[in-house]
Amino acid sequence: MLILTCPCCGVTGEETEFHAGGEAHIKRFGPGSDDEQFHSYMFAKENAKGVHFERWRHNNGCGKWFHAARCTTTLEVFGTYSAQTYEPPKEIKDKISARRPGWSWREFA
Amino acid sequence: MSKPVSALEGASYQGFAKVEEVGLRGMITIRGDLKSAGMKKAAAAATGLDVPGQREVKLDGDTALAWMSSDELLAMVPYAEVDDRIAAIDKALKGKHYLAVNVSDARAIFRLSGGNAREVIAKLSPVDMSSDAFGLGQIRRTRMAQVPAAFWVDETGAIMVVCFRSVAQYVFDLLKGAAENGNQVGYLN
């Protein structure tokens, strides 16, 4: 079971209090984009074994969205951070590097 | 004008803890910038209480002001005075970006009393209910079995539970089942 800490209200709860919202840091391609871009936005998702970034919502709590960095094999949560960002903050990346040296995920490493 | 009634019209149950539906309580959802001076004025105008900090609830008898999220408060006031209190909030926040809505009839509120009231909650919600971890002045929004709920401890040590009115019967039945005599766990005190 995942234990997540909501960065908005500070509650540390187990996953039944939250709701997964899919992969994080996806750039949206909407009207005006070409087929290739729309296809990659809509369908090409990471299916990482190891370090992964996701969006979560504290639906049975403060109701806010946030980001989580976790490991899909061990369910270790490296950290959670604000939803209002385009990339993981440095401190989260440092924490992951300490636990999983040499990790990479999409364009982040 | 029809006569307002609460969801379960004051249903109660006595097990190893007492479960009562409290009846009508005025509730106002306030959203806006909680750190602003206007919000402080609005909170004082509506409840006479300070804006609570993260996950805090300010209590004064039947009046309370609870922190619901980083941009939302819940004011609890006497049922008959809701419209006046909203008018006071509107005055204090005039011209600002905010929202104040009467949600009194969308909610149900329960009171759990008795020595083992914490145990009843602990059976239903994924929350550490030991008195060291959860005490007076804190509010926790979470789930109760399958529905969202929020609760806090009042000055008398009773636990107040707020849920949506549409699930009032469900929550009452949950609390009743968890409080049934013979179902004590005896882990919390």
Structure description:
The complex is a heterodimer of chains A (109) and B (189). With 109 residues, chain A is of the alpha+beta class. Chain A is built from two helices and six strands, in the order βββαβββα. Chain A is globular. Chain B has one domain (12-178): 2-Layer Sandwich (Gyrase A, domain 2). In chain B, helix 1 (37-47) runs antiparallel to helix 2 (82-92). Chain B has helices spanning 37-47, 82-92, 117-124, 168-178; strands at 12-14, 18-21, 26-31, 57-60, 63-69, 72-77, 99-102, 107-113, 139-144, 147-153, 159-164. Chain A binds chain B through residues 8-11, 13-14, 16-17, 59-64, and chain B through 54-55, 68-70, 72, 126-127, 140-143, 148. Chain A: GO terms for molecular function: sarcosine oxidase activity. Chain A: This is Sarcosine oxidase, delta subunit family. Chain A: One of its GO terms (biological process) is tetrahydrofolate metabolic process. Chain A: It holds the Pfam family SoxD.
Q: Which chain pair has the greatest contact?
A: A-B, 14 and 13 residues
CATH fold group of the domain at 16-26 and 48-102 in chain A: Folate-binding fold
Number of domains as seen in the coordinates of chain B: 1
Report the total helices of chain B: 4
Shape of chain A: globular
CATH architecture of the domain at 16-26 and 48-102 in chain A: 2-Layer Sandwich
Please estimate the helix content of chain B: 10-25%
Q: End-to-end span of chain A in angstroms? A: 26 Å
Backbone shape of chain B? globular
Number of helices of chain A: 2
Structural class of chain A: alpha+beta
Order of helices and strands of chain B: EEEHEEEHEEHEEEH
Task: Give the end-to-end Cα distance of chain B, rounded to a whole number of Å.
Answer: 47 Å
Strand order of the largest sheet of chain A: 3-4-5-6
The CATH architecture name of chain B reads 2-Layer Sandwich
Relative strand content of chain B: 25-35%
CATH class division of chain B: Alpha Beta
Number of strands of chain A: 6
